[in-house]
């Protein structure tokens, strides 16, 4: 009789926990699939500041009412030293606000440091990239701020992304969006650069 009771209790425990075990296996499989993913799509919104990049990093810039919305597609090219990735990204952007209405295309080459691969931690990776930025028309906001602007300028980005618990394919993204003349290489009349600080979401597939 005691053996039957113990057997019955064990059967109930196994029945209760077997769905959880299955769900955990699915999550683990999903994590492995994400680690092998080579494509990423990102959407973020950023607000432009009226200061330099150094002032932005020191939180000394004022946020303006000029915004940018960016949709990007990223492709991982190669992995080296296990934790570093080379990536190429294509962006389409829309600038809105009192002093800008233009569209833009940005194509940076990115190096990413995959700091952590465990979702038990919050911070996932840090990335920086450089490339070209093309605007459909010279943004009036840049002319106001720097004295002049050009359709084609240098593009830089800095990004930090964070894990979202229970969503292996989704990440929260904080990004700095930077457009400049590269020390007046693209335009000798430009003084300074445009900087925007944004937040968004990233999906790996």
Please tell me about this protein's structure:
This protein has 205 residues and is of the alpha+beta class. Helices cover 23% and strands 50% of the residues. It contains three helices and eight strands. The chain has helices at residues 2-36, 53-57, 140-146, and strands at 39-49, 63-80, 84-96, 103-114, 123-135, 152-163, 170-180, 193-204. An eight-stranded antiparallel barrel has the order 1-2-3-4-5-6-7-8. A hairpin with a 6-residue loop joins strand 6 and strand 7 (170-180). The radius of gyration is 23 Å and the shape is globular. It starts with a helix and ends with a strand. Mean pLDDT is 81; it is low at 1-31.
In brief:
By secondary structure, the chain is of the alpha+beta class. It contains 3 helices and 8 strands.
Task: Output the helix-strand order.
Answer: HEHEEEEHEEE
Topology, number of strands: 8
Taking the alpha carbons of the first and last residues, their distance comes to 54 Å
Helix fraction?
Answer: 10-25%
Largest sheet: 8 strands, antiparallel, barrel
The number of distinct helices, counting runs of at least 4 residues, comes to 3
Cα-atom radius of gyration: 23 Å
Overall, the morphology is: globular
Mean pLDDT: 81
* Derived structural class: alpha+beta
Strand order of the largest sheet: 1-2-3-4-5-6-7-8
Question: Which spans of ≥5 residues are poorly predicted at pLDDT below 50?
Answer: 1-31
Taken as a percent bin, the fraction of beta residues is over 45%
